[in-house]
C-alpha cells in the first residue's frame, strides 16, 4: 500500500472581512471588483439606457442563447453595461463581452444583474410567495434598495481558510486545511448548463460550488508552488461532515448580493424566506412588476 506523503498544512489566512450594506448605498460599485495588471482594484459600473432599441437587440441575444441558456446572462450584461471595473465593453464584440463576463467573479456578475434591473426598471419586484406555515399563497413586493450586499475593501479580504475536521488525501498529499476564494462566474455558468442539459441534484450543485471556491496549490519537485484545477473526483475522500460544514461556511463567507428576501405572511404572520426568482422573464418581465394587490 502506498504511504501518503507528509501531512501538508496550508498556512492559515486571516478570516474573511466582509462589510454588509444595502444596494441603495452600494450603488454603481462592484462588491469585489476587478484587479488590473497594476494590482489596483476597479469597481465602477456604467450602463446604457434600456429602450426599444436595446429591447430588440436583447431579443436577438435571447434567441441566440436558446441552445446555451447559461451564456445568456453574460451576453445581456456585456451588452447593457459599458463598463465593469477595468473592463470597457464598448470596444468588444458580443463574444468577447461574454468571455470577459465569464472570467469575472459570481458575486460581481450577480450584482450587475440585480443592479441592471434596479437601474432600468425600478426597485420593486413582485414575488409570489407560498407560506410554509399555513400554505397560503400571496403576492409580495420586494424592495431591491434594501437588499443586503456583502462587500470587501480589498480582494484578499474575501479569502479565508477552512480547517478540515477530517484531513484527507488530495492530489497525493494529506491536507488539513483548504484555501478558499470567491467563486468565479464560470462555475455558475457550468452549473446552469449541466442543470439544463441533464438535471442536477442539490448534492451535485453543492460539489460544483465547492470546487469553484477551493484554491489548491502544491509544491513541484523544484519547490515551486503549482496551482491545480480540481476535478469532482479529487474530493472523493472528503468526509460528509466536512462537505456539509464547508458548504455552510461558503455561504456564510460568500460576497455579493443576498438573493433572499424575508417578510411575514399576511394570513398567519409566520416569517418567510424566499429566493429571488432571477430568471429573465421573472426578473425583467411584466410578471415582476408590482400591482396594487402585490404591494407589501
Placed side by side, the strands forming the largest sheet appear as 2-3-4-5
Coarse morphology: globular
Helix content: 25-40%
In N-to-C order, the SSE pattern is EHEEHHEEHHEEEEEHHEEHEEEH
- Alpha-beta classification: alpha+beta
Q: Average pLDDT across residues?
A: 88
Supply the number of helical segments.
9
The value of Rg in angstroms is 21 Å
Q: What's the β-strand tally?
A: 15
- How far is the first residue's CA from the last residue's CA? 64 Å
Contiguous low-pLDDT stretches (5 residues minimum) are: 1-12, 292-296
Largest sheet data: 4 strands, antiparallel
User: How large is the share of residues in beta strands?
Assistant: 25-35%
Short overview:
With 296 residues, this protein is an alpha+beta fold. It contains nine helices and 15 strands. A hairpin with a 5-residue loop joins strand 2 and strand 3 (41-47).
Blueprint of the fold:
Elements: E1 19-22, H1 23-26, E2 29-35, E3 41-47, H2 52-64, H3 72-80, E4 81-84, E5 87-88, H4 94-103, H5 106-120, E6 124-130, E7 137-143, E8 148-151, E9 160-170, E10 173-180, H6 185-198, H7 202-213, E11 214-219, E12 225-228, H8 240-253, E13 256-257, E14 260-264, E15 271-275, H9 280-284
Antiparallel strand pairs: 1-8, 2-3, 3-4, 4-5, 6-7, 8-13, 9-10, 10-11, 11-12, 14-15
